[in-house]
Amino acid sequence: MSTLLLRNADLLITRDDARRQIVDGAIYVDENAIVSVGPTAGLPQRADRVIDATGMVVLPGLVNTHHHLYQTLTRAVPGAQDASLFGWLEVLYPIWSGLTPEAITTSALVGLGELLLSGCTTAADHLYIFPRDCRLDDEILAATEIGIRFHASRGAMSLGTSNGGLPPDAVVEDEADILRDMRRVVETFHDREPYSMLRIVVAPCSPFSVTPDLMRESASLGRSYGVRLHTHLAETLDEERFCLGRFGRRPVAYAADLGWMGDDVWHVHCVPLTRQEIELFAETDTGICHCPSSNMRLGSGIAPVRELVDAGCRVGLGVDGSASNDSSHLLAEARMALLLQRVGKGPGGLSAQEALWMATRGGAAVLGRDDIGLIAPDKAADFIGLRLDRLDYAGALHDPLAALVFCAPQVVDLSVVNGRVVVEDGQLLTVDLGPVVERHNRISRDLVGA
What we know:
The protein has 450 residues and is of the alpha/beta class. It contains 14 helices and 17 strands. The chain has two domains: 116 residues, Urease, subunit C, domain 1 (Roll), CATH 2.30.40.10; 305 residues, Alpha-Beta Barrel (TIM Barrel).
Protein backbone atom coordinates (compact mmCIF):
# COMPACT_ATOMS: atom_id res chain seq x y z
CA MET A 1 0.00 0.00 0.00
CA SER A 2 1.21 3.50 -0.85
CA THR A 3 0.42 6.58 1.22
CA LEU A 4 0.75 10.28 0.46
CA LEU A 5 0.65 13.24 2.83
CA LEU A 6 0.18 16.83 1.71
CA ARG A 7 0.81 19.19 4.62
CA ASN A 8 1.28 22.85 5.56
CA ALA A 9 -1.01 24.29 2.85
CA ASP A 10 -1.55 27.97 3.55
CA LEU A 11 -5.21 27.44 2.70
CA LEU A 12 -7.04 24.20 1.90
CA ILE A 13 -10.34 24.77 0.07
CA THR A 14 -12.33 21.57 0.52
CA ARG A 15 -15.52 22.36 -1.44
CA ASP A 16 -17.27 19.95 0.94
CA ASP A 17 -20.90 20.47 1.95
CA ALA A 18 -19.81 22.79 4.77
CA ARG A 19 -17.53 24.64 2.32
CA ARG A 20 -14.70 24.44 4.83
CA GLN A 21 -11.49 26.38 4.26
CA ILE A 22 -8.66 25.11 6.46
CA VAL A 23 -5.64 27.23 7.33
CA ASP A 24 -2.43 25.17 7.51
CA GLY A 25 -4.34 22.32 5.90
CA ALA A 26 -3.34 18.73 5.23
CA ILE A 27 -4.59 15.70 3.27
CA TYR A 28 -3.71 12.07 3.98
CA VAL A 29 -4.14 9.61 1.10
CA ASP A 30 -4.01 5.83 1.00
CA GLU A 31 -3.55 4.52 -2.56
CA ASN A 32 -6.12 6.50 -4.59
CA ALA A 33 -8.52 7.64 -1.85
CA ILE A 34 -8.48 10.42 0.73
CA VAL A 35 -8.41 9.08 4.29
CA SER A 36 -8.40 12.28 6.35
CA VAL A 37 -8.46 16.07 5.96
CA GLY A 38 -7.78 18.77 8.50
CA PRO A 39 -5.16 21.01 10.09
CA THR A 40 -1.63 19.70 9.62
CA ALA A 41 -1.11 19.12 13.34
CA GLY A 42 -4.07 16.77 13.51
CA LEU A 43 -3.10 14.41 10.70
CA PRO A 44 -0.45 11.66 10.48
CA GLN A 45 3.03 13.07 10.22
CA ARG A 46 4.53 10.36 8.02
CA ALA A 47 3.73 8.77 4.67
CA ASP A 48 5.51 7.09 1.77
CA ARG A 49 5.43 10.46 -0.02
CA VAL A 50 5.24 13.80 1.78
CA ILE A 51 4.47 17.03 -0.07
CA ASP A 52 5.20 20.31 1.66
CA ALA A 53 2.50 22.71 0.45
CA THR A 54 3.82 25.74 2.33
CA GLY A 55 2.90 28.86 0.38
CA MET A 56 0.15 27.11 -1.60
CA VAL A 57 -3.60 27.26 -1.88
CA VAL A 58 -4.90 23.72 -2.38
CA LEU A 59 -8.31 22.81 -3.79
CA PRO A 60 -10.07 19.90 -5.47
CA GLY A 61 -9.11 19.04 -9.02
CA LEU A 62 -11.28 20.87 -11.53
CA VAL A 63 -13.83 19.03 -13.69
CA ASN A 64 -14.21 19.77 -17.42
CA THR A 65 -17.60 18.62 -18.70
CA HIS A 66 -17.19 19.25 -22.44
CA HIS A 67 -14.34 19.31 -24.93
CA HIS A 68 -13.42 18.34 -28.50
CA LEU A 69 -9.77 17.43 -28.09
CA TYR A 70 -9.14 16.83 -31.78
CA GLN A 71 -9.82 20.51 -32.42
CA THR A 72 -6.47 21.50 -30.92
CA LEU A 73 -5.23 20.76 -34.47
CA THR A 74 -7.34 23.54 -36.01
CA ARG A 75 -6.96 26.58 -33.81
CA ALA A 76 -7.20 30.01 -35.41
CA VAL A 77 -7.78 28.57 -38.90
CA PRO A 78 -8.24 31.36 -41.49
CA GLY A 79 -11.82 31.50 -42.69
CA ALA A 80 -13.14 30.24 -39.35
CA GLN A 81 -11.80 33.03 -37.16
CA ASP A 82 -14.72 35.39 -37.63
CA ALA A 83 -17.58 33.00 -38.39
CA SER A 84 -20.61 32.07 -36.34
CA LEU A 85 -21.23 28.40 -35.50
CA PHE A 86 -22.72 27.13 -38.77
CA GLY A 87 -20.22 28.97 -40.97
CA TRP A 88 -17.37 27.94 -38.68
CA LEU A 89 -18.40 24.29 -39.00
CA GLU A 90 -18.72 24.51 -42.78
CA VAL A 91 -15.10 25.70 -42.97
CA LEU A 92 -13.78 23.03 -40.62
CA TYR A 93 -15.77 19.90 -41.53
CA PRO A 94 -13.70 19.27 -44.71
CA ILE A 95 -10.47 19.73 -42.75
CA TRP A 96 -11.58 17.33 -40.01
CA SER A 97 -12.41 14.72 -42.66
CA GLY A 98 -8.64 14.22 -42.91
CA LEU A 99 -8.21 13.10 -39.30
CA THR A 100 -6.23 9.91 -38.65
CA PRO A 101 -5.83 7.73 -35.54
CA GLU A 102 -2.42 9.35 -34.92
CA ALA A 103 -4.02 12.79 -35.19
CA ILE A 104 -6.70 11.86 -32.64
CA THR A 105 -4.18 10.49 -30.13
CA THR A 106 -1.70 13.34 -30.52
CA SER A 107 -4.32 16.08 -30.33
CA ALA A 108 -5.76 14.46 -27.22
CA LEU A 109 -2.33 14.47 -25.56
CA VAL A 110 -2.01 18.19 -26.29
CA GLY A 111 -5.47 19.12 -25.02
CA LEU A 112 -5.28 16.90 -21.95
CA GLY A 113 -1.82 18.24 -21.15
CA GLU A 114 -3.21 21.77 -21.21
CA LEU A 115 -6.11 20.73 -19.01
CA LEU A 116 -3.90 19.08 -16.41
CA LEU A 117 -1.65 22.12 -16.24
CA SER A 118 -4.70 24.37 -15.81
CA GLY A 119 -5.92 22.41 -12.79
CA CYS A 120 -8.29 19.96 -14.44
CA THR A 121 -8.12 16.39 -13.12
CA THR A 122 -11.31 14.99 -14.71
CA ALA A 123 -12.19 15.65 -18.34
CA ALA A 124 -15.15 14.74 -20.53
CA ASP A 125 -14.49 14.75 -24.27
CA HIS A 126 -16.97 14.58 -27.16
CA LEU A 127 -15.52 12.89 -30.26
CA TYR A 128 -18.14 12.79 -33.01
CA ILE A 129 -16.20 12.49 -36.29
CA PHE A 130 -14.57 9.18 -37.27
CA PRO A 131 -12.87 9.23 -40.68
CA ARG A 132 -10.02 6.95 -41.80
CA ASP A 133 -10.50 4.19 -39.22
CA CYS A 134 -10.46 6.66 -36.30
CA ARG A 135 -12.00 5.24 -33.13
CA LEU A 136 -12.79 6.46 -29.63
CA ASP A 137 -9.98 4.12 -28.56
CA ASP A 138 -7.44 6.57 -30.03
CA GLU A 139 -8.16 9.29 -27.47
CA ILE A 140 -8.65 6.81 -24.64
CA LEU A 141 -5.07 5.73 -25.31
CA ALA A 142 -3.90 9.33 -24.76
CA ALA A 143 -5.93 9.78 -21.56
CA THR A 144 -4.52 6.58 -20.11
CA GLU A 145 -0.96 7.59 -20.95
CA ILE A 146 -1.20 11.11 -19.54
CA GLY A 147 -2.98 10.07 -16.33
CA ILE A 148 -6.21 12.09 -16.29
CA ARG A 149 -9.61 10.86 -15.11
CA PHE A 150 -11.60 10.59 -18.35
CA HIS A 151 -15.19 10.45 -19.59
CA ALA A 152 -15.02 9.58 -23.30
CA SER A 153 -18.15 10.37 -25.31
CA ARG A 154 -18.85 8.25 -28.39
CA GLY A 155 -20.37 10.95 -30.55
CA ALA A 156 -21.83 10.61 -34.02
CA MET A 157 -23.14 12.44 -37.06
CA SER A 158 -25.63 10.72 -39.39
CA LEU A 159 -27.59 13.55 -41.04
CA GLY A 160 -25.60 14.82 -44.02
CA THR A 161 -26.32 17.73 -46.34
CA SER A 162 -28.14 15.53 -48.87
CA ASN A 163 -30.76 14.79 -46.21
CA GLY A 164 -31.04 18.33 -44.88
CA GLY A 165 -28.30 18.27 -42.24
CA LEU A 166 -25.31 20.58 -41.88
CA PRO A 167 -22.28 18.24 -42.17
CA PRO A 168 -21.08 17.03 -45.58
CA ASP A 169 -22.13 13.49 -46.46
CA ALA A 170 -18.45 12.48 -46.43
CA VAL A 171 -18.20 12.88 -42.64
CA VAL A 172 -21.42 11.16 -41.52
CA GLU A 173 -21.80 7.50 -40.55
CA ASP A 174 -24.42 4.81 -41.03
CA GLU A 175 -26.68 4.68 -37.99
CA ALA A 176 -26.45 0.91 -37.58
CA ASP A 177 -22.65 1.21 -37.53
CA ILE A 178 -22.86 4.01 -34.97
CA LEU A 179 -25.04 2.02 -32.58
CA ARG A 180 -22.87 -1.07 -33.00
CA ASP A 181 -19.74 0.88 -32.08
CA MET A 182 -21.46 2.58 -29.15
CA ARG A 183 -22.16 -0.87 -27.75
CA ARG A 184 -18.58 -1.95 -28.38
CA VAL A 185 -16.95 0.94 -26.53
CA VAL A 186 -19.32 0.71 -23.56
CA GLU A 187 -18.72 -3.03 -23.22
CA THR A 188 -14.97 -2.65 -23.70
CA PHE A 189 -14.10 0.40 -21.64
CA HIS A 190 -16.84 1.59 -19.28
CA ASP A 191 -15.88 1.30 -15.61
CA ARG A 192 -18.78 2.16 -13.31
CA GLU A 193 -16.91 1.46 -10.06
CA PRO A 194 -16.10 4.28 -7.57
CA TYR A 195 -12.86 6.12 -8.36
CA SER A 196 -13.16 4.97 -11.98
CA MET A 197 -10.56 6.51 -14.28
CA LEU A 198 -12.57 5.82 -17.45
CA ARG A 199 -16.26 6.01 -18.24
CA ILE A 200 -18.07 6.01 -21.57
CA VAL A 201 -20.85 8.39 -22.61
CA VAL A 202 -23.34 8.02 -25.48
CA ALA A 203 -23.36 11.31 -27.37
CA PRO A 204 -24.95 11.91 -30.81
CA CYS A 205 -23.66 15.30 -31.89
CA SER A 206 -26.48 17.81 -32.34
CA PRO A 207 -30.01 18.34 -33.69
CA PHE A 208 -28.63 19.47 -37.05
CA SER A 209 -26.30 16.50 -37.56
CA VAL A 210 -28.25 13.41 -36.44
CA THR A 211 -31.77 12.09 -37.04
CA PRO A 212 -34.54 11.78 -34.44
CA ASP A 213 -34.28 8.00 -34.81
CA LEU A 214 -30.63 8.03 -33.77
CA MET A 215 -31.41 10.28 -30.81
CA ARG A 216 -34.10 7.87 -29.60
CA GLU A 217 -32.13 4.68 -30.23
CA SER A 218 -28.90 5.97 -28.71
CA ALA A 219 -30.77 7.08 -25.57
CA SER A 220 -32.33 3.64 -25.29
CA LEU A 221 -28.94 2.00 -25.78
CA GLY A 222 -27.23 4.21 -23.21
CA ARG A 223 -29.92 3.62 -20.61
CA SER A 224 -29.81 -0.14 -21.17
CA TYR A 225 -26.16 -0.02 -20.08
CA GLY A 226 -26.61 2.61 -17.38
CA VAL A 227 -24.29 5.13 -19.03
CA ARG A 228 -24.87 8.84 -19.31
CA LEU A 229 -26.15 10.76 -22.34
CA HIS A 230 -24.71 13.97 -23.77
CA THR A 231 -25.29 16.26 -26.75
CA HIS A 232 -25.14 19.87 -27.95
CA LEU A 233 -28.39 21.74 -27.45
CA ALA A 234 -29.69 25.28 -27.93
CA GLU A 235 -26.28 26.70 -28.80
CA THR A 236 -27.38 29.40 -31.25
CA LEU A 237 -30.37 31.07 -32.83
CA ASP A 238 -29.44 29.32 -36.10
CA GLU A 239 -29.96 25.98 -34.35
CA GLU A 240 -33.26 27.22 -32.97
CA ARG A 241 -34.42 28.16 -36.49
CA PHE A 242 -33.25 24.78 -37.83
CA CYS A 243 -35.24 22.89 -35.19
CA LEU A 244 -38.36 25.00 -35.71
CA GLY A 245 -38.16 24.58 -39.47
CA ARG A 246 -37.39 20.85 -39.55
CA PHE A 247 -39.05 19.48 -36.40
CA GLY A 248 -41.61 22.16 -35.51
CA ARG A 249 -40.08 22.43 -32.04
CA ARG A 250 -37.59 24.61 -30.23
CA PRO A 251 -34.42 22.64 -29.37
CA VAL A 252 -35.33 21.92 -25.73
CA ALA A 253 -38.85 20.72 -26.60
CA TYR A 254 -37.39 18.59 -29.39
CA ALA A 255 -34.92 16.98 -26.96
CA ALA A 256 -37.70 16.39 -24.43
CA ASP A 257 -39.89 14.71 -27.06
CA LEU A 258 -37.05 12.27 -27.80
CA GLY A 259 -36.40 11.32 -24.17
CA TRP A 260 -33.32 13.49 -23.85
CA MET A 261 -34.11 15.09 -20.51
CA GLY A 262 -33.41 13.52 -17.14
CA ASP A 263 -30.85 13.01 -14.40
CA ASP A 264 -28.70 10.83 -16.70
CA VAL A 265 -28.45 13.55 -19.38
CA TRP A 266 -26.39 16.67 -19.72
CA HIS A 267 -26.53 19.21 -22.53
CA VAL A 268 -23.83 21.66 -23.55
CA HIS A 269 -24.36 25.39 -24.26
CA CYS A 270 -28.10 26.01 -23.61
CA VAL A 271 -27.87 29.68 -24.55
CA PRO A 272 -31.25 30.97 -25.85
CA LEU A 273 -33.46 29.46 -23.12
CA THR A 274 -36.91 30.61 -22.02
CA ARG A 275 -38.05 30.69 -18.41
CA GLN A 276 -40.19 27.60 -19.06
CA GLU A 277 -37.20 25.74 -20.51
CA ILE A 278 -35.08 26.60 -17.47
CA GLU A 279 -37.86 25.24 -15.25
CA LEU A 280 -37.92 22.03 -17.32
CA PHE A 281 -34.19 21.54 -16.78
CA ALA A 282 -34.74 21.95 -13.03
CA GLU A 283 -37.81 19.70 -12.87
CA THR A 284 -36.10 16.88 -14.79
CA ASP A 285 -32.70 17.35 -13.07
CA THR A 286 -31.03 17.58 -16.48
CA GLY A 287 -27.44 18.82 -16.36
CA ILE A 288 -25.94 21.75 -18.25
CA CYS A 289 -22.37 22.46 -19.34
CA HIS A 290 -21.56 26.16 -19.69
CA CYS A 291 -18.81 27.12 -22.17
CA PRO A 292 -18.43 30.91 -21.86
CA SER A 293 -15.27 31.37 -23.95
CA SER A 294 -16.60 29.37 -26.89
CA ASN A 295 -19.96 31.13 -26.76
CA MET A 296 -18.16 34.48 -26.88
CA ARG A 297 -15.70 33.37 -29.57
CA LEU A 298 -18.53 32.30 -31.92
CA GLY A 299 -20.85 35.15 -30.94
CA SER A 300 -23.48 32.65 -29.77
CA GLY A 301 -24.75 34.72 -26.85
CA ILE A 302 -24.75 34.53 -23.06
CA ALA A 303 -26.22 31.47 -21.38
CA PRO A 304 -28.61 32.25 -18.48
CA VAL A 305 -26.34 30.70 -15.85
CA ARG A 306 -27.60 32.89 -13.02
CA GLU A 307 -31.16 31.77 -13.68
CA LEU A 308 -30.16 28.11 -14.07
CA VAL A 309 -28.27 28.11 -10.77
CA ASP A 310 -31.10 29.91 -8.98
CA ALA A 311 -33.55 27.32 -10.34
CA GLY A 312 -31.49 24.56 -8.73
CA CYS A 313 -30.04 23.11 -11.92
CA ARG A 314 -26.80 21.13 -12.05
CA VAL A 315 -24.35 23.38 -13.93
CA GLY A 316 -20.73 22.60 -14.77
CA LEU A 317 -18.08 24.22 -16.93
CA GLY A 318 -16.46 23.18 -20.19
CA VAL A 319 -13.69 24.64 -22.29
CA ASP A 320 -15.40 23.31 -25.47
CA GLY A 321 -13.40 22.57 -28.60
CA SER A 322 -9.98 24.09 -28.93
CA ALA A 323 -10.95 25.54 -32.31
CA SER A 324 -13.66 27.67 -30.70
CA ASN A 325 -11.90 28.78 -27.54
CA ASP A 326 -8.91 28.45 -28.55
CA SER A 327 -7.36 26.94 -25.44
CA SER A 328 -7.93 24.22 -22.86
CA HIS A 329 -7.55 26.19 -19.63
CA LEU A 330 -10.31 25.34 -17.18
CA LEU A 331 -9.38 27.89 -14.54
CA ALA A 332 -9.63 30.53 -17.26
CA GLU A 333 -13.13 29.22 -18.00
CA ALA A 334 -14.18 29.78 -14.40
CA ARG A 335 -13.00 33.37 -14.66
CA MET A 336 -14.83 33.87 -17.95
CA ALA A 337 -18.01 32.44 -16.47
CA LEU A 338 -17.89 35.00 -13.66
CA LEU A 339 -17.14 37.93 -15.94
CA LEU A 340 -19.67 37.05 -18.63
CA GLN A 341 -22.59 36.74 -16.21
CA ARG A 342 -21.72 40.17 -14.84
CA VAL A 343 -21.91 41.79 -18.28
CA GLY A 344 -25.69 41.80 -18.25
CA LYS A 345 -26.50 41.19 -14.60
CA GLY A 346 -24.01 43.33 -12.71
CA PRO A 347 -21.74 42.23 -9.85
CA GLY A 348 -24.42 39.82 -8.58
CA GLY A 349 -24.29 37.83 -11.80
CA LEU A 350 -21.87 35.26 -10.43
CA SER A 351 -19.44 35.14 -7.53
CA ALA A 352 -15.95 33.63 -7.33
CA GLN A 353 -17.31 31.04 -4.90
CA GLU A 354 -20.01 30.03 -7.39
CA ALA A 355 -17.59 29.91 -10.33
CA LEU A 356 -15.25 27.55 -8.48
CA TRP A 357 -18.20 25.49 -7.26
CA MET A 358 -19.27 24.95 -10.89
CA ALA A 359 -15.69 24.03 -11.79
CA THR A 360 -15.57 21.36 -9.06
CA ARG A 361 -18.78 20.12 -7.40
CA GLY A 362 -20.97 21.37 -10.23
CA GLY A 363 -18.97 19.51 -12.86
CA ALA A 364 -18.89 16.35 -10.75
CA ALA A 365 -22.68 16.47 -10.37
CA VAL A 366 -23.15 16.96 -14.12
CA LEU A 367 -21.06 13.83 -14.76
CA GLY A 368 -23.04 11.91 -12.16
CA ARG A 369 -20.13 11.48 -9.76
CA ASP A 370 -20.03 11.92 -6.00
CA ASP A 371 -16.44 10.69 -5.62
CA ILE A 372 -14.71 13.73 -7.16
CA GLY A 373 -14.96 17.53 -6.96
CA LEU A 374 -14.26 17.85 -3.23
CA ILE A 375 -11.56 17.10 -0.69
CA ALA A 376 -13.10 14.83 1.95
CA PRO A 377 -12.58 11.36 3.44
CA ASP A 378 -13.44 8.45 1.12
CA LYS A 379 -13.35 10.69 -1.98
CA ALA A 380 -10.93 10.29 -4.87
CA ALA A 381 -7.48 11.72 -4.25
CA ASP A 382 -7.70 14.45 -6.89
CA PHE A 383 -6.39 17.86 -5.82
CA ILE A 384 -4.29 20.74 -7.09
CA GLY A 385 -2.04 23.39 -5.59
CA LEU A 386 -1.00 26.87 -6.71
CA ARG A 387 1.72 28.95 -5.12
CA LEU A 388 0.49 32.22 -3.68
CA ASP A 389 3.84 34.04 -3.78
CA ARG A 390 3.77 34.61 -7.54
CA LEU A 391 3.62 38.06 -9.11
CA ASP A 392 0.12 37.46 -10.45
CA TYR A 393 -1.41 37.17 -6.95
CA ALA A 394 0.46 40.05 -5.34
CA GLY A 395 -2.01 42.13 -3.36
CA ALA A 396 -4.74 39.46 -3.46
CA LEU A 397 -3.70 37.23 -0.56
CA HIS A 398 -6.45 38.46 1.77
CA ASP A 399 -8.77 36.13 -0.24
CA PRO A 400 -6.83 33.37 -2.04
CA LEU A 401 -9.99 31.67 -3.30
CA ALA A 402 -11.16 34.84 -5.02
CA ALA A 403 -7.64 35.46 -6.33
CA LEU A 404 -7.79 32.20 -8.28
CA VAL A 405 -10.78 33.49 -10.23
CA PHE A 406 -10.34 37.26 -10.37
CA CYS A 407 -6.61 37.31 -11.15
CA ALA A 408 -5.00 36.12 -14.38
CA PRO A 409 -5.40 32.32 -14.80
CA GLN A 410 -2.25 30.42 -13.90
CA VAL A 411 -0.64 27.03 -14.48
CA VAL A 412 -0.87 24.86 -11.37
CA ASP A 413 2.25 24.02 -9.40
CA LEU A 414 0.89 20.66 -8.23
CA SER A 415 -1.70 18.19 -9.49
CA VAL A 416 -2.54 14.84 -7.94
CA VAL A 417 -4.90 12.51 -9.82
CA ASN A 418 -6.10 9.27 -8.28
CA GLY A 419 -3.35 9.57 -5.68
CA ARG A 420 -0.59 10.00 -8.28
CA VAL A 421 1.44 13.20 -8.66
CA VAL A 422 1.12 14.15 -12.34
CA VAL A 423 2.21 17.82 -12.16
CA GLU A 424 5.02 18.99 -9.89
CA ASP A 425 6.68 22.41 -9.81
CA GLY A 426 4.48 23.37 -12.75
CA GLN A 427 5.81 20.54 -14.96
CA LEU A 428 3.82 17.63 -16.38
CA LEU A 429 5.49 14.40 -15.24
CA THR A 430 3.67 11.76 -17.27
CA VAL A 431 4.38 12.82 -20.86
CA ASP A 432 7.33 14.60 -22.49
CA LEU A 433 5.43 17.44 -24.14
CA GLY A 434 8.25 18.65 -26.42
CA PRO A 435 8.04 15.78 -28.94
CA VAL A 436 4.24 15.75 -28.64
CA VAL A 437 3.98 19.44 -29.59
CA GLU A 438 6.40 18.95 -32.49
CA ARG A 439 4.37 15.99 -33.81
CA HIS A 440 1.11 17.86 -33.23
CA ASN A 441 2.26 20.87 -35.25
CA ARG A 442 3.37 18.63 -38.12
CA ILE A 443 0.00 16.87 -38.20
CA SER A 444 -1.81 20.22 -37.97
CA ARG A 445 0.14 21.67 -40.92
CA ASP A 446 -0.56 18.60 -43.04
CA LEU A 447 -4.24 18.55 -42.07
CA VAL A 448 -5.02 22.23 -42.65
CA GLY A 449 -2.87 22.39 -45.79
CA ALA A 450 -4.37 19.28 -47.34
